[in-house]
Design goal:
Layout (H helix, E strand, L loop, with lengths): L2 E20 L5 E22 L4 E6 L7 H13 L3 E8 L10 H17 L5 H8 L11 E6 L3 E4 L7 E6 L6 H8 L8 H18 L2 H4 L7 H8 L1 H11 L5 E3 L6 E4 L3 H12 L8 E6 L3 H11 L20
Parallel strand pairs: 3-4
Antiparallel strand pairs: 1-2, 2-4, 2-5, 5-6, 7-9, 7-10, 8-9
Length: about 325
């Protein structure tokens, strides 16, 4: 009863990110808009029922405390089943760049294993316990997040425009970035930041194009991160040439820019490669991925294991009893 699947785990960017006051629980109140992009890791999964659970993970990089194994253990326990599950992970999403690769890998496990096992699992609850970004990757597309960044609300799909992602090889500590912001319980700028965020969300909803709406976008981490890593500011400025709005995603360090056309993106790519000031930097081409396309992708990836013609999400397994 060996069942196998090969799936892609997509990256995300933050189209807008505002950090408000510190909360009584020690976390910060956030407002952000997540967006899936086509940049992806790949995950090969072999599932086989067994008397006891055995999990293994091979990959092209070594990752301590990999979320793939934590997600697999949690979902098997939720399904009350034992299995031998072998994972082969190929990382293409730059690590530590704020692109959500680890969270997306975990969500891929949560979506795939129930389909392979033919059993249901509390994947939403498990996702929330694994990390703040993981629940977003169960749905994909464009979503607004508030609170600690774990409360999601789906937004209408937007145009699937070309994107350039620049990875400068800089590691930014999220904890240090928050400390540098110095948001206290009595931070007085929250109203202003919420107003700016609302303006961006309205523009995105009206225009349905991230390149146009980004004129009113911000990422509150940019100021403090760019002071420590001037190279990242140089990368953003270079990507912004030609009229594109470039932003850092998450607390860094990846920088992205969204373009009106592939021609504009390729022009920016050629110009960027001639810039010595940015030093070593990996440029990755991608596209925005709508929720509709994201879920279609997942249905294709798991088609051999899904109930035919089901419109339920997540899609039910053909092996369910």
């Amino acid at each position: 009863m060996l069942r196998s699947a090969k799936v892609k785990a997509l990256a995300k960017i933050n189209l807008d990110l505002r950090v408000l006051a510190k909360r009584p629980d020690g976390f910060h109140e956030l407002r952000t808009v997540f967006q899936t992009i086509s940049l992806a890791d790949s995950l090969d999964i072999d599932y086989e029922p067994a008397r006891r659970t055995e999990l293994s993970l091979d990959g092209n990089v070594e990752i301590a405390d990999n979320l793939v194994l934590r997600a697999a253990q949690a979902v098997l326990e939720s399904m009350k089943t034992h299995a031998r599950v072998r994972f082969r992970l190929t990382k293409r999403i730059p690590m530590g760049g704020g692109l959500g690769g680890g969270s997306s890998d975990a969500a891929a496990v949560l979506l795939a294993l129930p389909a392979l096992a033919g059993k249901s699992a509390a994947i939403g609850e498990i996702a929330a316990g694994l990390g703040s970004d993981v629940p977003f990757f169960l749905e994909g597309g464009t979503a607004l997040a508030i609170g600690r960044g774990t409360e999601f609300y789906s937004l209408p799909d937007i145009a699937e425009q070309p994107v350039l992602v620049a990875s400068g090889g800089v590691h930014v500590s999220t904890a240090e970035a928050y400390r540098a912001l110095d948001r206290s319980l009595t931070f007085t700028g929250s109203s202003y930041r919420i107003s700016g965020f609302q303006s961006f969300v309205r523009a995105l909803g009206d225009l349905r194009r991230a390149d146009l709406a980004s004129a009113s976008s911000e990422n509150d981490f940019e100021a403090v991160v760019f002071r420590r890593f001037p190279k990242l500011k140089t990368i953003r400025e270079k990507l912004s040439e030609g009229g594109a709005v470039a932003r850092m995603t998450g607390s860094g360090s990846a920088i992205f820019a969204i373009y009106a056309s592939e021609r504009d993106r390729e022009r920016a790519r050629k110009s960027f490669h001639g810039e010595r000031a940015v030093g070593q930097c990996e440029l990755l081409s991608a596209r925005l991925v709508s929720r509709r396309s994201y879920q279609r992708m997942w249905r294709r990836q798991l088609a051999a294991h899904l109930a035919p013609e089901s419109r339920i999400w997540p899609p039910p397994s053909r092996y369910a009893r």
